[in-house]
Amino acid sequence: MKFILSKQIYTVYVVCQVIPVKNSQVLDKIRQTYRVQYIHDVILPMPSVFEDNLLSTLTSFIYLNKMEIVTMLQVSLSQRIFLYLDEELDILQNH
Q1: Model-level pTM?
Q2: Are 62 and 33 in contact (CB under 8 A)?
């Protein structure tokens, strides 16, 4: 889907989840990181024009957010695995 607005072409992308994420905190953190990454990569001017401190701070913020997302996903996945294993164990014990 393309839109022409003030002689510029904008494309709308649809993002699909590869791994279903039900935790709203993780989804919010992913959205926040995506937006800050976009600002860092696209909107801000070149480092020579802008303060290096801000770019450094944004880079650190993005990195820490990504680490937090991975940690939250690992915890969620490990909980799901243990729940599945508990259910399987119950089934085996009942037979």
Answers
A1: 0.66
A2: yes
